[in-house]
Structure formats: structure tokens, C-alpha cells
Target: NnrS family protein
Amino acid sequence: MQNKEEKLHATNHYLYYPDEENIPPYLAYGFRPIFLLLAPYLILSMVLWGFVWSGVINIPFMDNVLVWHVYEMLFGILTAGVMAFLTTGLPELFPGTVPLVGKKLKYVMLLWIAGRISFWFIDITGVYLAAILNLAILGWLIWFAKDVVLDKLQRHASLGYALVAIFGIESWFFASMAGFATTDPVMILRVALGVIVILILLAMRRVNMEAVNELMEDKGIDDIYISRPPLTNLAIFCVALFTAVEFFYPNNSVLGWIGLASGAAVLAITSDYNLKDKFILNQPYVIYLYCIYVLMALGYALMGWDILIGEPYDINSFRHFITAGGLGLAYLMVMVTIGWIHTGRHLTSNIYTHLMVFFIVLATFMRGMIPFFEEYSMQLYFWSAIVWTLPFVLFIKVFFKFLLTPRADGIKG
Model:
């Protein structure tokens, strides 16, 4: 149980909590229903993809299952992850922001569900319905985060600008799907990945600050972790350059060197964990967060190497170090961190959190190394998808009971 001073500090985040009666625990704060739906959705989507791509089953109502898979893993999951991050974090970052709870939260979640259904059945219901529903949920997120962009101090404006860019790219994607743009939808999704990586790097600065400092406070470590903007900004520049060159000049060998530079820049962010007075690289959550950057760095570096050797293996397999690995683990860490702290508990590591991270890393290497073991490609496709879902099965086991009950410290939310 937190002491009185800690509880008083926590209540400062909830001064504007809506005065709505009979709010069930699963609608008591933005992250709760999102995580309750997102974990099962990730399991369903990835298992289904594993069966489809390994040739076990066929989905008759989907003409292009690759586009469906990539879109859902990028935009479908992104909107839920960003929604959890913003609806939980903005009331803390900007006092006066009214938390999204109760009936309003339920309607937003229904809109996200409708967006997922519309894209699953896009070949039946049409592009326009999917575009309207999915752009509506992202548009709502931008509106909810408007104070971030309009903040005079511009403390977190980069998050808002990245969301606006992603909205534009998603609009471009649907324009292509509807025949109004001639760009290949897969190329647009690659551009989207680059901008989403930038958004994740920006968000991870905030997650690192909260998680690592919370961890050190609980451990009695007398030091402060600061995520330095120059390192993140350099990584963002390199990722943006790689994304632009890949789109406009995909066959230019300079892209290989930019890939190596992007990998090095992303990896350099991990130097923030080297504190002046204390050694924290042996702390579980620091290792978890460290792995996010390592997997992303490997993805860009391996893609760069693949281009430079002149005899490409499969650059998209290496891209999975970024998607299944870096992004997947980033989403998982946001879910786990919020799942502990914002249900009124201390940030805790145990065998379950260790296994969650281990399975993400294992699945990423299984998928990313397929070019070197082509004779086992179908087996690796299938089992990497299954292994990737196991962390979210464990998340359900550990956190669903927290998400379905009031906060442990008695605070609203």
C-alpha cells in the first residue's frame, strides 16, 4: 500500500475525473478496455496470420492477406496503443485534461472495433466504410491530443505532429486502395512504418522516464534517469532519411549505408542507461526496454547490410526485427508498465514478465532469420507467429484481474 504522500501525489492526476455514477472498473480509465481487447486481438490476428502464411488455411473473403496483415499490425494496433498512451498520460502531462471514462470511453472503443471489422471485411463492405471508420478513430485521437500540439511550451508537440503525419499517410493508403492514388499500398505501408517508428521513439522517451525512475525509486536507488533528446533526435533523423530514400530510391546502394547509420543511431539511445553514479543495466525493466532499441537497431542494420552485399536475402524478413521485435516489445512494455503503475501497484518483474520479453525476442529471431534457413521457412513462419502470441497470453493471465477490478490504492481510475 502506498503511503499518504504518494497517494496525494497520485490523486493530482485525477482532479478532473468525470463525476459519472456507476462506472464499471473496466471503463474506469482509458487503458483498461483497450488492453482487455488488444491482447486477445493480437493473439487472434497473429495466430490467423501464421495459419494463412504457412499455407494451412485460406481466407476466402480477403483478396490481399499481406496488405491486411501489415495494415492491422501497423495502423490497427497503433491506434489502440496510442489511445492507451494518450488517454492515460495526457491527464498527467496536462492538468485540466478530462480523463476518458464511462460511456464516452465505451463509444470510442466501439468505433475502434468497428474499424477492425470493416478492414477485415473490406472486400465485402468496401474501401470507403473502412476508410471512414479508421480515419475517424485516428482523427479523434488527434483531437484528444490537441493540447499537446497547442501547448505554448511545445513540450510534447512532436507526438502530435507525428500523429498528424500518420493520419495523412493513412489517408494516402486508403486513397490508393480506392484507386485515387497510383502508389502501391505496400510502399505506403513502408512509409507508415518509418513514421510509426519515429512516434514510438518519441513515446519511449516518456515511457523510459516513468518506468526507469519509478523502478529506481522502488529500489531505493538515489539517482535520476534522463532520456536525452539529442540521441533520440539523431535516431529520428536517420530513420526518416532511410524511409524517404527507400521510397524514392529503393535500388540505390546508399540506402545500405543509411540503414547501418540508422541502426547505430537507434542503438546509441541505450547509452542513456549508463548513469553517472549507479549501475542499472542489471535491472529487469531496464533490460526489457534496452531490448526494444537493440531489436530495432538490428532491423535497420541488417537491412542495410542486405542491400550492401548486393545479393539480397530477404530485406522484409529483417524488417521484422523492427515490427515484430521493436514495435511488438514496445507495445508490450507500455501495456505492462501501465498495467502495474496505473492500477495502483508498484512496477514489478517476475517470471511472467521475463518470459513475455523472452518470447518476443525468440519469435523475432525465428522470423528474422528465415532467409538463412529457407528449408524450414514454413515451419518458422508458423511457429514464430505462435511464439509471438505467448507474451499476450501471459499478459491476460497476469493483468486481466487488475484491469477488471478497482485500483489497489483506492484512487479513481
Remarks:
- Confidence is low (pLDDT under 50) at residues 1-10.
- The radius of gyration is 21 Å.
- The chain has one domain: 4-403.
